[in-house]
Amino acid sequence: MSRIFSGVQPTNNLHLGNYLGAIKNWVELAAQPKNDCIFCVVDLHALTVYQEPEILRANILAVAKTYLALGIDPAKSTIFAQSQVKEHVQLGWVLNTIAKMGELERMTQFKDKSAQNKNNINLGLFAYPVLMAADILLYDTNLVPVGEDQKQHVELARDLALRFNKLYGETFVVPESVIKKDGARVMGLDDPSKKMSKSAVSANNYISLMDTPAVARKKIMKAVTDSGAEVKGGADKPALNNLLGIYSLLSGASVKDLEKQYAGKGYGDFKTGLADEVEKFLVNFQNKFNAISDKGIEKVLTEGAGKARQLAVAKINLVKNKIGIL
Ligand code: AQP
């Protein structure tokens, strides 16, 4: 049995990058009987940027509903919110005491996010990867399915597990990231040199899973393209590669087949085809999402937190015992 753990922050509506880079892989892993999956809504992480309380509360439920609507079955996988299991914070503190300032300073996401928001470089943002390590290590996680941007954080979780085990004896399973090549880094529609991100300044950067098909179509039609007119990817075509990648993952057709399909046609036809595919996906997703009530998802989270807590308490008791605290 392999333990799988991953999460998404409830910072906004999720976008196609979150789905294609992470949750699509969760669904595939969760379908395999050999895997025991835990999917968390990492709400404590979201606090590193100010969140309107009422919006945050709604977003936590919305992210959990999104997991279900994208194909995670709560009868098979454990789904809960990070703040419901206080052991995450307890273990986070313990790991803070063995994490080095230097290794956290090297984290690319910290550098990017602190450069974007110079007025709010808070301690939580700096320690974010340590709390993420606690999330992972608390559950004896073997595999962490994430997008490329989270690879460095999973590496830190590995380093901290090894360091703790060396200091106090075998305690933590050393986790590995699972990053699928396709979709690992979905880029912004308005700037293919940066990843698609929920907190991007312009909403034209991403396709939100809650965008109406009309809005999504507009964003696709407006998406940056490369010079030339041929629908053929290549090293000098970052914008087209990105759109081809999205199209391929949503439709199941290979990039080569798509290039054949659009041979002799221009970007306009290609973008229309992509918008049609995105529309199919969004309508299907949103129908499922809207069928889940707040009460229903709250019940899923409460039950999931109960299951997660049992594992977390056992682990934190072991950790306390090892380090000599009560
Ligand atoms: N553009 C992306 N391409 C592929 N995977 C992505 N992920 C995020 N963006 C892309 C993956 O989605 C999972 C959840 O991410 P998160 O919510 O924890 O935070 P993030 O990585 O910081 O994502 P965002 O969208 O950029 O959120 P904000 O703007 O709030 O920080 C992770 O597995 C991530 O790799």
UniProtKB/TrEMBL annotation:
A cellular component term, taken from the record's GO annotations: cytosol
Source superkingdom: Bacteria
Localization in the cell: Cytoplasm
Top EC class, one word: ligase
Listed PROSITE patterns: AA_TRNA_LIGASE_I
CDD domains referenced in this protein's UniProt entry, alphabetically: TrpRS_core (cd00806)
Residues annotated as binding L-tryptophan: D135
Binding-site list for ATP: Q9, P10, T11, G17, N18, G147, E148, D149, V186, K195, M196, S197, K198, S199
Main location class: cytoplasm
InterPro entries: aa-tRNA-synth_I_CS (IPR001412), aa-tRNA-synth_Ic (IPR002305), Rossmann-like_a/b/a_fold (IPR014729), Trp-tRNA-ligase (IPR002306), Trp-tRNA-ligase_bac-type (IPR024109), Trp-tRNA_synthetase (IPR050203)
Motif ('HIGH' region): 10-18
Reactions catalysed according to its record: tRNA(Trp) + L-tryptophan + ATP = L-tryptophyl-tRNA(Trp) + AMP + diphosphate + H(+)
Biological process, per Gene Ontology: tryptophanyl-tRNA aminoacylation
Gene Ontology MF annotations: ATP binding; tryptophan-tRNA ligase activity
Placement of sequence motif 'KMSKS' region: 195-199
Similarity comment text for this entry: Belongs to the class-I aminoacyl-tRNA synthetase family.
Protein name per UniProt: Tryptophan--tRNA ligase
Name of the gene this protein is made from: trpS
